[in-house]
Amino acid sequence: MMTSEEAILADALHHIASRNAILFLGSGFSVSARGINNEEMPTAHDLAQKIATLQGFDAENDLRYASSRYLDEGGDKNSLIKLLRETFSVKGVESHHITIASMPWRRVYTTNYDTCFERAAEQTGKIYDSVDLASNPSEFSARNNICVHLNGSLKNLNIDTLNNEFKLTNSSYLSPDSFLTSRWRYPFQRDIDFCSAIIFVGYSMYDIEVQKILHSDPTYREKTFFITRSLKKGRDQFTISQFGSILPIGAEAFANAISQEASSFSDEPEELILASLWEYQLSEDDVEIRDADVDAFLMRGEISDKIIDAAVSGAKGAPILISRDDITYANQLLNANANLIVTAEFGNGKSTFIRALKSRLALTGIRVFTADQADAHQHDDLDKLVKEGTKGCLFIDSYEQNIDLLLHYAELQPTNLKLVIGARTSIHERSRSRLAEAGLQLSEIALDELSSEEADQFIGIIDNVGYWGEKAALPPHSKQSIVNHDHHRQISLNLLSLLSSPQMIGRVREILNGILLNPQYRDTIFSIALLAANDKPLTSSLISEIALNNEIYSSELRNNESFRQIFRIEGTKVVSKSSTFAISLISQQFSATYIVDQLLKIVAAIDKGVDDLREIQKSLLRFSVVERLLPEKQRMQNLVRYYEHLKREISWLKNDPHFWLQYGMAQLTYKQYEKAQGYFHQAYALAAQKYNYHTDHLDTQQARLFFLRAISAEDRSRSFQLFLDGKKLIQVLPDDVHKYRQVELYGEVFDKKFPLFSKAQKADFEQACKAMHVNLTRVLPEAWPVTRPRIIVRVLDMLDGIINKIKNEKEMNRQ
Question: What is the pTM of this model?
Answer without folding.
Answer: 0.73
